[in-house]
Predict the structure of HD-GYP domain-containing protein.
Amino acid sequence: MDGVPARARVYVVCVAVAALLCVWPVSQVYAPWWAMLLLAGVYAGSELVARSRSVGTCYPVLLAGAFLLPPPAAALVALPGALLSTVTRRPRGLRRIWRAAQLALAVWAAARTHWQLGGRDAVVEPDFPYALAPAGAAVLAFCLVLTLLDHGIRTLAVAAPRVPAGRRWRLPTGRVWRGLFLRSLAPVAVHGLAGLMMAVLWRSPYGPVAALLVLLPMCVAWWAFAQYHRERAAHQATIRALVQAVDIKDGYTRGHSERVGRASVMIARELGMDDERVETLRFAGILHDVGKLGVPTRLLRKDGPLTPEERRVIELHPEYGHEMVRGIRFLGEARAAVLHHHERLDGSGYPYGLAGDRIPESARVVAVADAFDAMTSTRSYSRARPVAVAVRELQRCAGGQFDPRMVRALVRALGRHGWHPSVTADGTPVPRTGPVPVPGQGEDTRDSVGRRVP
């Protein structure tokens, strides 16, 4: 149990004892043992298959047990599958005990709620308008117990951060728990409907075999879900490989791509874009400089002004980047952002000198995010500016170089969420003490790639 705080281990033991107390009366109540063993076996098998495919737990079987069996027997259904499931992280024994106890308590609470509301009679003689009420309450109880226990172990397993003297660290307990509960409720509700269908068919003349057939469409859904996650993981791996290659080539901008991605997401959310577009803008920000792989390293690391010939070579990097990513279909409009993120609203940018609305919206978002991070990060040729100074510079250039709507969105997002300090290539925080001159007020003017104009 190395690495697990003592308070978390005590919490797991307490939850396990509570689960045993819930299961213990099973010998004192009437329960169809063959049904309990069959459900426990099905759950154990589905749990092993689901976890091997990384698609989560088979809740319909557990909830069907809660609708069919007395609370102690329903809680017992969860134990074999949880105790025998594959665990990759250590301590394995503690994690198995925790999962078994957590599920047993959640199923017991669901079964108890269902039986108290008369759900047993509704399942035996199906009356669907009436049967849905106790089943819905049972699903709520199941989800409530799961998220409360999960939040408890997360809180105890993570050490509290250090805070300055005289201040108290407070975990936003209610907000975190509500987030867990709301995210879990919809999937658990769907599983609850499948569990109710299983319970009704189980009690019908068709019997348990018909009830188990309900799992077939669930298996198809799990397979599709697993395929989606594997494809998503492949996308993330592709992006990580490209970004790492850029970071290796240009060490002074290490972390820049991730920060531009984060700033692009802040702008996109402030503009009210849907989640799919927000994710696309994150990809665009992360990959906007991938074309630097085609630029000679000596130019990227040059400490000093660029000659006109060197500038022309560097200004080819958007086209290089577009060539690299145009075959990656899942990037969508992010590919246009890679190509056009150095265009300017007044038409003086590159590579094609587009102006106004002819510049894709994704490129206008990334242009603001890129400039903001470039100004607030220390590089070989420039020192970081404070966030307030960078914001004033963006506002000064809005309408000529940047889209004013994107600048306003970033300013609003910074006002709400702030901005984490940037880091240099060696990972040390950038100092923010002392004023930094604004371009045009005592400092050399810089071009669109951040270098001093010769």
Confidence is low (pLDDT under 50) at residues 159-172, 421-454. Residues 215-249 form the longest helix (35 residues). The chain has two domains: 6-158+172-213, 231-417. Residues 6-158+172-213 form one domain.
